[in-house]
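I had to read the description of the data format several times before I understood it. The format is easy to grasp once an entry is in front of the reader. For illustration, here is how one protein appears when written out as sequence plus structure tokens:
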Amino acid sequence: MLPLRAIAVFHAAARAGSLTRAAQELGVTPSAVSQQVSALEVQLGTALLTRQGRRIALTEAGERYLEMIAPHVERIEEATRYVRGSLSSGSLILRVTPTLATRWLLPRLPRFLDAHPEIELRVDATNEPTDFAREGVDLEIRHGEGNWPGLLVEAVAEERFLPVCAPALAAPGSLRAEELGRHRLIHSVKSQVQWAGWFAEAGTTMPQARRVLFDRSHMAIDAAIAGMGIALESTLMMGDALRDGRLACPVAAPPAIRRRTQWLVCPADRLRRRRVRAFVDWMRAEGARWATDSLEELKQTAENLDCT
């Protein structure tokens, strides 16, 4: 039988560098720590520690053994803490792309927190996809095309992609598609809609314009607001800037390019957790509210720009 207790005790002793400190961490006596390590050494047939007064040192075999087991022991400790914490509290761990987190989710989160004061929310903003089998993440809002077999996948909302810039750079509706090359084009390199595709939809070739590239949509949006050039971005990400006039569509009657790029993603069994169901239900409602508000805003814009 695998001596899991002895392995955990050896790991604690090697990490602490002292049998006494390891005993204090584990809540046992130094003698008990010594006995567990000795039992492990007997099973392995080699010495793992040497005693140097009150301190201990690893033998060569002990160093190799610690190097091999440490990541696994620490992963077990992390998993234990996570499961214990998730069962004893209402914590919800959410992973979300940085741009969606800052541009769309954060302004709306107070409504969720007010509606569910019993849920403690942790937001992990990153573009790295979650390995649900190994990480303690409850739910992810993931950017992509929505093709992740074995997971529950649901679109947040349908987005529209528009060229936008600061009104001081180009007035709303003042340019034809072929005239965009007069200005610097801002590229969001991870976006699912790129300038070449947009110009093709507009029925013209992409100009050899000056350009600047960003690997985060929120940087491309900020660059457009600052007057750096014209960006091609999603209304889901830049709705507030369009609404308050910091950004505007400089093209009359741009092509209607619509995509779903943000998705609620998790293993299906996560929905058994009440806090996950609560957040998913809230996101569905918020996505529907945004879609309705966005449609009204686009209709208002269309009255002036023929932007439908």
The domain at 89-157+261-294 is CATH 3.40.190.10 (D-Maltodextrin-Binding Protein; domain 2). The two ends are 69 Å apart (CA to CA). Residues 146 and 297 are 27 Å apart (CA to CA). Residues 274-305 form the longest helix (32 residues).
